[in-house]
Design goal:
Layout lengths: L1 H5 L1 H27 L8 H12 L1 H32 L15 H4 L1 H26 L7 E5 L2 E5 L2 H8 L3 H28 L5 H32 L3
Bound molecules: protoporphyrin IX containing FE.
């Protein structure tokens, strides 16, 4: 089993499966974050964040998510290094540009490293404050959940204050574009790795992947930008 996971095909399989898992997470994450754009002072978002924070299913998924990210990052680096070694100097030879090979597909490692740097900052901005250190901005507010006034953490206030800074918004917009490029290749590549691709499906998955990738990437960028432009003060 361990030799399968360390083989080239095993590493690729783990990359594909962890990638699919992370893509599902991103869609849910984007859906919850889109509630930040409801102009109700953050009540709906805070109620949703409270639901996510107190849901036992999410408590089980969170460690799996961390494992998914670690597997995806470590195996991604190993696989790229292994491929480069196997290809030797061939990858530097001029004039060997293959038709249909996108910039994103050739730069998955650098895109992944950029996203990792973003994630370190992102986790420090929100997760660390919400789960470990606390922050005065998170002081409880009362929101109505199914007609019941409930005290919840004011995650909205923390996010809103974070997106009051232009440099942060620029980082999120750039990360959103980087994410879109990474996913535009990662989407169909994950499906191909698990064997769900042929000539017809490859074309369809490429289109679907581009729609998904730019929807998610631009979605995250827009939330940060609109928070900065229209939700301050
Ligand atoms: C507008 C953009 C975004 C906002 C407002 C946002 C907000 C948040 C918040 C508030 C948390 C803490 C949740 C908690 O601990 O309860 C969080 C965690 C997290 N975010 Fe984001 N996020 C954004 C974009 C992204 C992007 C682009 C990625 C991935 C590339 C990402 C990946 C994660 C991960 C892995 C966690 C930790 C796991 C978790 O707590 O669920 N986020 N985000």
């Amino acid at each position: 089993m361990s030799s399968l996971l360390c083989s080239s095909i095993g590493k690729k399989l783990l990359m594909g499966l962890s990638g699919l898992f992370l893509m599902m997470f991103l869609l849910i994450h984007l859906t919850v974050n889109s509630l930040l754009l409801i102009p109700d002072g953050g009540d709906t978002f805070n109620a949703a964040a409270h639901f996510m924070a107190t849901n036992p299913f999410i408590a089980v998924v969170e460690p799996l998510l961390a494992i998914g990210f670690i597997v995806h990052i470590v195996w991604g680096i190993l696989l790229t290094l292994q491929n480069r070694k196997a290809r030797g100097s061939a990858r530097y030879a001029s004039g060997n540009k293959t038709k249909g090979v996108t910039w994103a597909s050739q730069n998955m490692l650098i895109l992944g490293i950029t996203l990792f740097a973003f994630l370190v900052l992102h986790v420090a901005h929100f997760w660390v404050k919400m789960k470990l250190t606390g922050d005065p901005l998170l002081n409880d507010v009362t929101v109505n959940i199914a007609g019941v006034p409930t005290e919840v953490e004011n995650a909205y206030a923390l996010i809103n204050a974070t997106f009051a800074e232009l440099w942060v918004v620029i980082v999120y917009v750039v990360a959103g574009i980087g994410l879109a490029l990474h996913l535009s290749h990662g989407f169909w590549s994950s499906f191909q790795t698990i064997g769900f691709s042929n000539d017809i499906w490859r074309k369809r998955l490429t289109i679907l992947g581009n729609v998904y990738a730019w929807f998610v990437g631009i979605g995250f960028s827009l939330i940060a930008l609109l928070q900065y432009l229209f939700f301050q003060g």
